[in-house]
Specification:
The chain is mainly alpha-helical and 254 residues long. The protein has a domain of 131 residues: GntR ligand-binding domain-like (Four Helix Bundle (Hemerythrin (Met), subunit A)), CATH 1.20.120.530. Helix content is 61%, strand content 4%. It contains 11 helices and 3 strands. A 3-stranded antiparallel β-sheet has the order 1-3-2. α4 packs across α7. The protein is globular, with a radius of gyration of 18 Å. It holds the Pfam family GntR. Keywords: DNA-binding, Transcription, Transcription regulation. This is GntR family transcriptional regulator. GO terms for molecular function: DNA binding; DNA-binding transcription factor activity.
Length: 254
């Protein structure tokens, strides 16, 4: 049976501590690195290097990578190891098309089902997202933007859509890391706030219009030349290497 893990990722504003099984914690750290665009598309995810970084066995790493593979953000290559997915231009178009369809359905359902508590939580996320961008912590801001869309999916009260959205949000982050152009400005928090207002007013038509405008804004900043994130695993997870306690030989600890 998997043990409970003592390590918690150093918190940023609004970042909840990571806990759960070893698989869960490794998965969450890698998922966050993808959402924050710290892991570059095409990065080789060496089981040996990740095992050293997280202080766990290759079996644990393999299970976490398998979960990410099912979500489409990691490519599992037989006999060649795993890499962060690197969507082609055509794949990027298909992912954004699917994301638009899912976001439209989620928005319509959120207008119908979102509770006052859920709307308040969404507003807190937006406030924290804005604070991150204001202090220059772009990675945390991008992650919070992704979390906003995941929480909105939960407010829609449709479990399959939450699963679809989780995969699409992380794949979208890869596409942005690979193809985003220009100064990489971000104003999603303004668009998010207006979207919450429309949902709170139960104005489905306005909410969907705002969501589609938001997707247009993201889509409009993409090209085929820009690259951003890193392919150095030790650099991406350097904050863990400084805090992880050494464990006995063969022990699985984070």
């Amino acid at each position: 049976m998997s043990q409970q893990l003592p390590l918690k990722k150093p918190t940023r504003a609004s970042k909840s501590p990571r806990s759960g099984t070893q698989d869960d914690v490794v998965y969450a750290h890698i998922f966050d690195a993808i959402l924050e665009q710290r892991l570059a598309p095409g990065t080789k995810l060496s089981e040996e290097a990740l095992g050293e970084i997280f202080g766990v066995s290759r079996t644990i790493i393999r299970r976490a990578l398998s979960r990410l593979g099912h979500e489409g953000v990691v490519l599992l290559r037989p006999n060649r190891g795993a890499v962060v997915a690197s969507p082609s231009v055509e794949e990027a178009r298909q992912i954004f098309y699917a994301r638009r369809l899912v976001e439209k359905a989620i928005t319509e359902l959120a207008v119908e089902h979102a509770t006052a508590e859920q709307l308040a939580e969404l507003r807190r996320l937006v406030s924290e997202e804005q604070a991150c961008f204001s202090r220059g912590d772009r990675g945390a801001g991008i992650r919070l933007s992704g979390e906003f869309h995941l929480k909105l999916a939960e407010a829609a009260k449709n479990a399959p859509l939450v699963g679809f959205q989780r995969s699409l949000v992380s794949q979208t982050s890869l596409i942005i890391a690979q193809y985003e152009s220009g100064g990489r400005s971000h104003c999603s928090y303004d668009e998010h706030n207006r979207l919450i207002d429309a949902i709170e007013s139960r104005d489905a038509a306005k909410a969907v219009e705002l969501m589609m405008h938001h997707m247009d804004h993201i889509d409009g900043k993409l090209n085929l030349e820009e690259e951003g994130a890193s392919d150095d695993l030790h650099a991406v997870f350097s904050h863990l290497l400084g805090t992880r306690k050494k464990s006995p030989r063969g022990a699985d600890r984070l």
